[in-house]
Design brief:
Transposase (putative) YhgA-like domain-containing protein, single chain, five-stranded mixed beta sheet
Length: 290
């Protein structure tokens, strides 16, 4: 099943097609900034029972080199069937649109990125009829943006940096720089950046830091995900307060009690527990009237 992290890794290029030209310099190529970009249908299915669908497909217009297509694929792990699918995508798009076609694969770990960037040849060794050489963006070549000023200069690239480094310890510094840079940005700019970053982090531990940063640094920001983020942040703070009161009173807090408190996401329930934590003789008794 396709997850939110997968979707963020390629949809961010739909949100800002010019991001590809800025990313390209980290990939060892120099793609000119497009003068226009169009999002194309991603369904590559022919009269066949097998459905083939690229993640994101963009048509770029450039001033000097003419138009070309960019297929963007988000890849979460090694998949031996993917290179053949990618070769199909590229050859099909070339045939259908009669335009040069590039493939960008976005990864979040070094092993997958290393695997994805290996050239794949179709044909016997002495007859390499078709060779696929994807461009790969991942933690091995995407910038580590930890300076708020650098993040402010290119918020979308900073978001992609956080997404591609989501599993690396440095992601914490990237997220802090990004949240700081977003403080002064207009709300319509903040909205997609917060969404892409949150989804791109998936279920990794960094998502909790990002939710807390948004709750604190972007308190003005209103959206479904930001309200959810702030609710979680408030719940975590309230749970911490309950535990602090119990521990400061010298009460023994068992793993079961601690787990129940930290797992609670309802600020009202936690507020009630906090009130009881001030007077109960034993930690377990904060739950007594439930």
């Amino acid at each position: 099943m396709v997850g939110s992290s997968h979707e963020a890794m390629h949809r961010i290029f739909q949100h800002d097609p010019g991001l590809f030209s800025r990313v390209s310099r980290f990939l060892g190529v120099d793609i000119p900034r497009p003068v226009a970009a169009t999002t194309l249908p991603t369904d590559l299915t022919e009269a066949s029972p097998v459905e083939r669908r690229v993640d994101t497909l963009l048509r770029f217009e450039t001033a000097d080199q003419g138009p070309f297509l960019l297929a963007v694929e988000a890849q979460g792990k090694k998949d031996p069937d993917k290179p053949a699918s990618w070769a199909y995508y590229v050859s099909y798009l070339w045939t259908k649109y009669r335009l040069p076609t590039a493939l960008l694969v976005v990864c979040q770990d070094y092993a997958t990125a290393k695997w994805a960037q290996l050239p794949v040849t179709c044909g016997p060794p002495e007859l390499p009829t078709l060779t696929l050489t994807p461009l790969v963006a991942g933690p091995h070549n995407m910038p580590v943006i930890t300076d708020p000023e650098e993040a402010r200069a290119d918020l979308v690239l900073a978001s992609l940096a956080a997404i591609t480094h989501a599993a690396e310890p440095v992601v914490n510094a990237i997220l802090k720089a990004l949240s700081t840079a977003l403080r002064d940005a207009p709300e319509d700019v903040v909205d997609p950046i917060v969404e892409f970053t949150a989804h791109g982090l998936g279920n990794r531990p960094a998502k909790h830091l990002w939710r807390n940063l948004v709750a604190v640094d972007l308190s003005f920001y209103k959206s479904y995900i930001s309200e959810e983020i702030r609710d979680e942040g408030r719940a975590q703070a309230a749970a911490g307060a309950v535990l602090i009161v119990l521990e400061q009173r010298g009460l023994a807090v068992s793993d079961d009690v601690r787990g129940r408190i930290t797992a609670c996401g309802d600020p009202e329930v936690l507020r009630h527990w906090l009130t009881r934590a001030v007077t109960v003789p034993e930690a377990e008794r904060i739950f007594e009237d439930e």
